[in-house]
Amino acid sequence: MKPLTRRIPEETMTALRNPSAMLVNISDSAAEDYQALLFEAKNTKAEIARNKSLDPEFEHDVYDELLTQAEIQGNLKKVNTIRALDKLNDALLKTDKDLLLKALKSKHLGLKNVNDDNIDNYMIRLQEIKETKQNNNHGEETTLERDEVQAAVNAGNLDADVEYQKSQCVISINSAIDSGDMEQLMKALSSPSAKLPPVYDFAGSLYMEEFQNMKTEKQTDLDYDEIFAAIKVLSAVAAINKAVEVGDPEATLQTLCDPEACIPNLDEHNSEKYQKALAASKNTKLGSSCDLLTHFEICSCVDQVNAQVQEEHERVVAIGTINDAVDSGDPKQTIKALMAPAAKLEDIKEEEGYHYHVLLVREKTKKSEEAGDEGVVLWVEDIQSAVKTGNRDAEEGLKLSNGVEAVNKSIESGDSEALINALVAQDLNLHSVIPDCKQQYMDSLVDFRKDKSSQGEVGSGWVMNRIKDGSKFFYNVHTKEYSWTRPDDVVKDNGILTKEEIQKVVTEVTAAHDRELLFQANENLIVKIQSHVRGYQARKNYKERISFMKKQLPAIITIQSHFKGSKQRKKYRERRDFLRNNTDAIIKVQAMIRMHIAMKKFRDRLKYFKDHEDAVVKIQAFVRSNKAKHDYRALMHEENPPLNVVQRFVHLLDASDVDYSEEIELQKLRKQVVTEIRSNQQLENDLDQMDIKIGLLIKNRISLQDVVFHDKKLAKHKEESVSVPKGLKALSKDCHDKLEAYQHLFYLLQTNPTYLAKLIFEMPQSKTTKFMESVIYSLFNYGSDQREEFLLTRLFKVALEEEVSSRVDKMSDFVTGNPLVVKMIVGFNRNQRGQNSLREMLNPLICEVIEDKNLRINTNPVEVYKVWVNKMESDTGQTSGLPYDVTTEQALEREEVKKLVDLSIERLQQITDKFLSTILASLDKIPYGMRYLAKVLRSALMTKFPEAPEKDVLKIVGNLLYYRYINSAIVAPDAFDIINVGADKQLTNDQRRNLGSVAKILQFAASNKGFGGDSSYLACMNTYIREAHEKFKQYCIAACEVEEPEVRYNVDQYSDVVMISKPVIFISVQEVCDTHQLLLNHQDQIAPDNGDPIHELLEDLGEVPTVDELLGVELPGDEKLQEQQRGLLGKTEISLTLNNKFEVPEDDQADIQQLLTRTKRLVVDVIACEPGESLVEILENQASDEQEEIHQALIKKRDLRDKKMAEGKNSGLVRQAVYVRGYEDAFESDENQNKEEFTEFRTSRGCESEEPVSRSS
């Protein structure tokens, strides 16, 4: 120690290298560091010894000031480790891999599993840890510890292994692509070691085709990043194909909107069109090697639909322009709008514009009268029909004018033949024209024309005719021009007859001709009169004959019956005599006919069976399947299934010798595990006692002579109190027992949720929140790892069930009240993980609402009315004269206010639907704890209120999931960190009202609450609310479908006892005292059973200590100072290593379980071999020789199966083969039974010689 005192490093190194010192791992370059650290350690130890020397009872020892060999070696190792870590940190700063590898292999660090090939991974991991540590220290330069370096090395090795596995998978994937092996490709893509996104099994052809295209385009193998990115897109494309196949437009749109699908230019309003287009495109690919749509094909369909929708929109705009033109009354605007390309109307002729306009006005007027609404509009079909009618009218007018022209020309030429041809022409459509009167027509028309010509001007060529609908058609016979309106410069030509004038002349001439022929028709009239008279006479004679027959009917019937009877008896006698003379022949003929009929029926029946063989087999299979399902359901769900059902499935209960041996071995292993656990606990207890003894030995290290020397001195102070260290961490046995008792108590509170669940409701309401925050979360470490989260979830489950059973009288209490456990559940699940889920789900939607500056949702008519009045007055600069304070009904009387409210309602429904769709699609983002406790709440309510409808229970579940958890984040996103809002930027009133309106509608949908009464103007949203509520119900049902915590967190009864390190909690001393006091005050309520373990633990602890007693601190005499000191000391945190006081119970049932296993096997054999109505009857009946033979055959079959299993034991497929064979036996049994039943049926029908129908299908 002298070289240390002189502080000369060279002398210190010489002393350290002295062989007698037995020191190792000494480095010459660290001499100064050795000197400094050893000198400081020696001074520290000497200072401690000087402080102890102030105690008169302290006995000085040489090693109280000098360093021992172990302490010197420990300080040398510490210096070597620090220097090695400094070198490692220098290598990290320089990013020198060689230097880093050398530092990692330093013997002073003693790192394990350092691999030269993984140096890159080590560098990355170490830099990440160093950067994290530096950030936690506010940017100060830090040095890594050895444990941190070892953790980085282990993590680097894992990273390297993962990268290697990924590279092997990439090679396998490229190989499968080259060979075109779809099965190998899907297996490689689904490999867990590949760390690739999930793939769909049905989309193998899609993955293969797209990967082959990518590889062909790249001309080399695909790398991991390309495969990873491609799978994301292709899996999204596969999901789109699946949704298209289902035929649900909403599901298809949802998959198309998936960001992973990379489908641009989507419009949610075109979902049905997307569905139809994609389905049609997919149908065209049926039968091809890849019958799924590719990404390019889907994008093409979407673009095609968008283009079609755009065209339709432009057409709608063009149709609106046409309606406006029609309303304006200007034919020029109408023809211009009709000829617009966007309208896509056919056969538009500019010269027919006026007639088009007239027809469109007429059609619109007609629709307005039918609908009783002046605001109706014409659609495409109406407009196109009017155009076709106009064109047809023009053609009709031309034909009519040409016909009139032909008549006038015939009149001028005096050609009667040409005249009659023109008059009977179909285009002219004249009636009552008789060819025989052609000359009379000619003469009359010539005279009429002369009279007309004398009345006005002639020679202009213009003539006016009316078509069928009464429209005027102006036509010039010279220039062939025509018009629907009379031009200003047109003069009527009186030298041309119109259609009406020609028809008038023709009618008069035909009428004169008809009168001339009237007299010639008298001869026919006489003949007709005669025929009527003769008919009358014949009918009269017939009626008289009928009357006579009816009067003499009985006599007629009697005569006829006698005659017919005599004739029939004669025929009968003749037939009887013939049959008697030919009896043998008749019998033979009858036999042949009956044989023929029977054979025909047999052949027909046989043909029917052969034609419907598949149907017969299917019916038999269906009947047997239904019976098997019924029996299996009875076996699984009935408490005491019938014995015949058990016998039917007894082959499933048959166990081989291997199974029997395995079950016996399992019982032995379970017993051994329990024994080993108890042994480990005993070793831990012995180790704790050894630690205490070693501490006491070091503290009280004195020689035997010293004991004798101080014996007398101790006797003198026998009466005086001696100050000994107190507190939980002291090395005395009492302090250790106290600490161990608290560790046992908190372990029991942590693992048995019943105590805390009951204690919460025993405490005053004012203290419950404080107790929850200060103790419960500390006890469970805020759910920081899986074990604590599992235990905290169990506590919430038991507390929630306790609250429902004891505090809830009616279901509405959950909605109207503020349940304590629900607040705890929601508060815990709004931690960082739950908050991130809410942010990820709601942030895009809330940002969209907030960033829309034009969005102002206000459904209050009074407020909308006031805003409208203010705006109108500000725009005009004058007072409106309208009242400012109005009622809701008065505000809605204003059309402008009603339109604004309707617009807000429409916008509100659109935004709410987006929120609803996102929430329903984000079920997996709801924390597991919320979903599981929703499931617990549903079960507890159904148990407490069994008569309540499920919809009412789901309302309560929806209240928990939406209103308690999600609603607040929508209403106040800035308060729940859903959005980032700066200190100088707060949400405006409009933004908060918009979000509040959305949240209100969603809350109404979750609780199925509609609008009425004062809010009846919003009743139009009730239909939407009901539809949304149905979706919420399905959402709540799906949310409750989660696994149990034991499965989720992989926890069982042995998890704690096999943990490498015991659970540790950090809790303040005041919390320990408060918990102890509460348990003592309410121990009878939380544990009514006197044998409950918590009573034993509380008895071990005794009375509640004060804070200073637990810490072993003496307080001053002043009471105020004591209270202040206790308040400060109460915040001191201590760590408790929790363990279980009560050993794992010994498994005394192992032998009984083995005996039960043997008994079950024997009972199964008996059931399989002997018939009976009940198990008791089977066991009491004596077995016959036949049954003994069946049993022996069963044993031989089982031995043969065990032998095969023993031979294939190493293949790993033994048990699967046994099960498969069991199913084959069952199928073969059903097959034989089918054949036997069908053979029996055919035998009964006379078909013994035919083969039975096969059940090959």
UniProtKB/TrEMBL annotation:
InterPro entries: IQ_motif_EF-hand-BS (IPR000048), P-loop_NTPase (IPR027417), RasGAP_dom (IPR001936), Rho_GTPase_activation_prot (IPR008936), WW_dom (IPR001202), WW_dom_sf (IPR036020)
Entries under CDD domains matching the protein: RasGAP_IQGAP_like, WW
Listed SUPFAM superfamilies: GTPase activation domain, GAP, P-loop containing nucleoside triphosphate hydrolases, WW domain
Keyword RNA-binding: no
Keyword annotations: Coiled coil
Record region (Disordered): 1229-1257
UniProt KW Transcription regulation keyword: no
Stretches of the chain forming a coiled coil according to its record: 666-700, 1176-1203
Domain of life: Eukaryota
Ranges where the Ras-GAP domain occurs: 787-1007
PANTHER family assigned to the protein according to its UniProt record, in alphabetical order: CALPONIN-HOMOLOGY (CH) DOMAIN-CONTAINING PROTEIN, RAS GTPASE-ACTIVATING PROTEIN WITH IQ MOTIF
Protein name: Ras GTPase-activating-like protein IQGAP1
Native source organism of the sequence: Tegillarca granosa
